[in-house]
Structures
1.
Amino acid sequence: MTAIQTAKAPTAFDELGGSFRGELLLPTSPGYDTARRIWNGVIDRRPSCIARCSGVADVVEAVRYARDHDLDIAVRGGGHNVAGTAVCDYGIVIDLSAMRAVWVDPARRTAWVQGGALWGDVDRETQAHGLATTGGIVGHTGVAGLTLGGGIGFLMRKHGLTVDNLLAAEVVTADGSIVQASADEHPDLFWALRGGGGNFGVVTSFRFSLHPVGPTMMAGPVFWAADDTTDVLRFYRGFAAEAPDELGSVVRFGTVPPLPDVPEELHWRPAVAVACCYAGAVEDGERAVRPLRSFGTPLVDLLAPTPYATFQGGIDDTVLHGWHYYWKATSLAGLSDDAIAAIADHAYAAGSPRSYTAMFHMGGAVARVPRDATAYAGRDVAHNIVIDAVWLPDESDEHAAAETAWARRFLHALQPHGTDGVYVNFLDSDDDADRVREAYGDQIYRRLAEVKAKYDADNALHHNKNIHPG
Ligand SMILES: Cc1cc2nc3c(=O)[nH]c(=O)nc-3n(C[C@H](O)[C@H](O)[C@H](O)COP(=O)(O)OP(=O)(O)OC[C@H]3O[C@@H](n4cnc5c(N)ncnc54)[C@H](O)[C@@H]3O)c2cc1C
């Protein structure tokens, strides 16, 4: 073998590799193909380098290197965003997936959470102290992307959005500086981070306030046959309107997933489910959900005293990594008879038994925060809806086209009943790009653009729900 054959070929990233402590994955590296994949299996991008950071200093190095070499930058937290903005072609992915630590301070009821953590990590560590904060409803969703877009989940009506619980963030800005953002330091940046997405820097850690939660909660879903949807929703309209702040609920339209506690004969049967989680004493929760459980003839009732962390991971296997996904989203001011009719007409017309729609009940503490306090815009929305078309990687292009067409048709049918605005974290890729301004409304968007101009005037961070500077 000649010297030339044995020498390691120099790469454009050797200079970065000299000081970088984490893993640099190039297209020739073992593990590159796994590292470039994210939750949505549709996304198939090939970055020139994945910089898997081991800490804040690595993030600084990667940002500075990318800027000096004019590289496109994508930032990966949990890798769950359906639009796939966590990965880019050709450029560099600043990958925080190795930074998942959670430090709980039980005396102060706060937690520091690193920028690559998942909600399952946070729920596990905080619940060890009987504490929690509002997170998403699937344990393998990333903390960073979810928080930066607002953060909705079962605890929000009692404890506010995830951003309402954000006390501070450590951020590596687009020029590679490390700044702390809080109500006292860089308050403009802190305002923008609470809803404005990944536009303003790479967040290396978040500090959240925590609340006593559980550990056992009255929680779980009740399922009815899809044919009962109109009646269930008419009942749910009143039930939700009168619900105490403690009662969080999400309605799911689709099929009965093959969960361990569900009798096998019900698996994949078209059904509407109302999943509840009561953020208070189990006995009070039992009382609060009684009318729901006794409505009509449920197919199966899984509401029971359940450990919060178990409940939060309960549907993780119904939305697996690598399946193919396409989303459409809207918000409703209320559940009118016409909106209910549109849901009943379209929700079950998908071809795949895995496709579903989720409707989050908002209000409570979310609605009591003034609209201009954070960049999250949808304070007055009654229900946030996400239509999730799902198909398997080996299913045909025709099947994929039929599922995505279903999601678009369903959105179209709901739009006359929608409010202004849409939850930014539920937007998909190309055909939703022009909805970013709609998500925020003109006033919040303009303020975000000013903050963007201050912290990232060159729009170096643009693989996101992009706010244009200035
Ligand atoms: C199965 C599933 C369930 C969900 N459930 C909920 C829910 O209950 N409630 C809810 O509110 N949302 C929910 N979502 C939506 C979720 O909030 C978004 O998908 C969010 O973007 C996921 O965050 P992530 O860190 O995994 O994203 P990634 O895909 O890793 O990143 C998305 C974008 O966020 C930004 N970003 C990520 N990490 C950082 C960082 N450290 N610093 C700066 N910017 C960063 C970047 O712009 C990046 O392009 C769900 C999504 C899925 C797939």
2.
Amino acid sequence: MIDFSKGFSRRKFIANTSCFGAFYAAARLIPLPALAAETASDARVAATPLLDKGFASVRKIGNGLYATISDPSKGSTTISNGGFLAGKDAALLIEGFTTAAGASFQMDALRMVSQVPVKGALDTHYHFDHSMGNSFYGANGVALWAHATAAKRIMDNYAPLQGADKEVVLAPFEKRIRDAKSDTERAHAQSDLNAVSSVFQVANATVLALPNHPIDPARLPMPIDLGGLTAMVESHPGHSGTDMIVRVPEQNVVYTGDLLFNGWYPVCFDEKATISGWRDTLKKFAALDKDTLFVPGHGQICGQEGVATIREVFDDIAGQAEKMYKSGVPVGEAQHRYVVPVKFKDFPVFAWGFTIGPAITKMYAEWKGV
Ligand SMILES: [Zn+2]
């Protein structure tokens, strides 16, 4: 079983949160894997990055197409992946990242290759690591695109943390650690506390900037003409209820946001996350061209093998959960009993209660027809 909170004593934990957050401390142990051989040898993918700052690097992955890939082990400026598309007439930026400095970094990379006006910056969904750097775009007059409900979700989820009493926010998570019935439950509760502490810290360090260009999913798919380069903005269910992807059909490239985690356990905690919806979306990704290049929300650039792997992860969670469901294990216990198989042992788990736990809880609810 993977648990990144192991080895973090309470004192150490407090020391870590005071500077950069416990998740980032843990993330330092998870280096970004190198490009897979198949991706590295893909003619579309540049051998060397255009710009590399450690915490993220930007690489050309097609004609006018660039991927920003984060390495949280080297810093928390961006955390999520992103990228940009530069046509003859306009550019589209993808993601607001965790900090304004992260969005600025990506803009610098765009300006190294193109001076065209920026049509917009799209948050693929509202989560903090994709939206907290939005203020950079606001300050620079770049329209902020997102799912029609993303602005509200940012306000509902992050504004209440601003100026809040940290002890009050963290108290229920501290209580879960105290009340844990086993070492496993305690470790899971600790990983959740670490994650919430990190989100609290980021939210309080951020001037929230809300998307001002809401996109109604009923109007999608929507073609975006950038001049000799056409992107499709699409919405699919799964990760957050606000998920958008950017697809470039002519070049078989997809920016998936968090609908694809490559080599990570999927983050499933969102109240609007749907496991069956997400697995259907992944099935659609798997049905795209076999040479499709994916820029996932987290992890390295990948081909169809990355989609196949996350589908296997969901299959494995579902397989273990179904056995427990059928033998009458209550959901409260089942969510802690999943065992990470050896083949996924190096996959980062953001926090148990944000990934595997809610995946199992949501699967149980679907089977019960709740
Ligand atoms: Zn997310």
3.
Amino acid sequence: MSTVLITGASGGIGYELAKLFARDRHNLILVARSADKLAQVAHELQAHSITVKTVALDLTQPPAAKFLFDQLQRENIAVDILINNAGFGTYGEFAQMPEEEILGQINLNVTALTELTRLFLPAMVQRRSGRIMNVASTAGFQPGPYLAVYYATKAYVISFSEAIANELRHSSVTVTCFCPGATHTGFAARSGTEKSRIFRILGGMSAERVALDGYRAVMEGRTLAISGLHNWAIAQSTRFAPRKMVTAVSRWVAEKTES
Ligand SMILES: NC(=O)c1ccc[n+]([C@@H]2O[C@H](COP(=O)([O-])OP(=O)(O)OC[C@H]3O[C@@H](n4cnc5c(N)ncnc54)[C@H](OP(=O)(O)O)[C@@H]3O)[C@@H](O)[C@H]2O)c1
């Protein structure tokens, strides 16, 4: 039985991914800040006769990734599949954005993801087996006015993941970058995007559907996977259009509307 570590598993896409891995009888290590929610998820998923370990941790606090790695080392737990899913965005003009929101997004979406990858990857390479899935977003394919830091962190995740997937092309370890588009989870409320056109016009996919796409992508070892045909088409459309136009459209989509 393999062991899967999922960050951000107390809700949303991470929770749905945890359910899919549990159904296929993988042992789980679930990480998020809310100890109570994690305990509830663990209780639910243990019904699949698997081991579920929970670690309540704020991954925006820099030693957190190392702390998690060291704890698992001490307990002799090897991670076969790492899912870097935890992430958040904050809506607003950059000039007015509180510093803690800016650094929090960078620390979680970029630093923790990179550190966890660096910490767990060498053992996978040595064992000649392992999978990593980094959850980016379709936000990573263009600049995002009003969500400038969030979009930039996701552009990093795409670039970083594709690069290391290429470095590992001759190994049996796979790195998958998974890009959901708008998805109905706690993300919109946390980011303040509920009234933006991102959700009002583009609608959103269910977390269950998105997680299933992610699950398939990581198990197939795909390098880049975009959830939903419409999201794939939107991501492709940004490739050949003038960048100023792409940014202007991205701003319009992010703007809030009353209806
Ligand atoms: N929903 C969307 O529209 C959408 C679209 C594209 C990409 N994504 C990406 O998908 C991933 C999952 O998002 P989601 O939509 O499922 O969001 P969500 O419902 O808000 O879930 C986020 C998860 O991350 C955990 N988390 C948040 N801050 C954390 C921290 N500092 N340390 C540890 N864990 C933390 C949360 O648990 P606690 O609060 O308990 O810590 C929760 O389990 C993110 O990377 C997001 O950027 C989402």
4.
Amino acid sequence: MRFTTLGTGTISLLPDRSCSGYLLETADVRLLIDCGSGITRRLAERGLPWQTITHVALTHFHIDHHGDLPSLIFAWKYGFLPARTLPVEIIGPVGTADLLQRLAAAYGEWLTAPGFPLTIREITPAAAVELPGGLTLTCTAVPHTAESVAYSMGRGARRIVYTGDTGPSEALAAWARSCDLLVCECSLPAGMGIPEHLTPEQCGELAAAAAPKHLALTHFYPPVERVDVRALVAARYAGPVTLARDGWHFDLEDE
Ligand SMILES: [Zn+2]
Ligand SMILES: [Zn+2]
């Protein structure tokens, strides 16, 4: 499995940090997780296989996590020849189908009927989604918006967890326990902390409780980059930490 951080920023528009987006690639699956503004460009810049993405999973409905999805579907419909025939599945929390219907009402029926098979699957914490090649996608609710979820992508003994946007949650830490890679939002410095996002200190506490083999931080608003994120996390979690940039990737071999 290869996990790439395409967009490590927020709706604070920066040249080097796009809105949220991540790509998980296996031999059988190209799963795009979130698709905020700038992610279509990041896919093209990196030479990533945007034409053959097989699944898209949304964590929640803030526009910095899905703003480029209509563009991506339009690109699949008109952006290359011969036109796409490969099916795609859009996965997200309850409300995803309604979101796409409302986007289709604004942009046109092509958005949900683009001329190749497009299915929408709403995921709940109770039900795992089995993807090709033995990849299992599961979610858990997180404290951010009513619909917000974190995702776990597992295959064999390997497991990657992405928090999406979240506030502090002991249940999330327990759910992410012992994963290989924890991709964790790190939005705001302590002085600006709110219940819907994490500070570096709270990321360190989450990682200390979850004990991932590797911690990657993402979703940085500019003020949090003016504090020593690495030191604040290291004071709480002793494992390896990456402050992710757009285009960073993490390879996980099968066990
Ligand atoms: Zn966000
Ligand atoms: Zn959000």
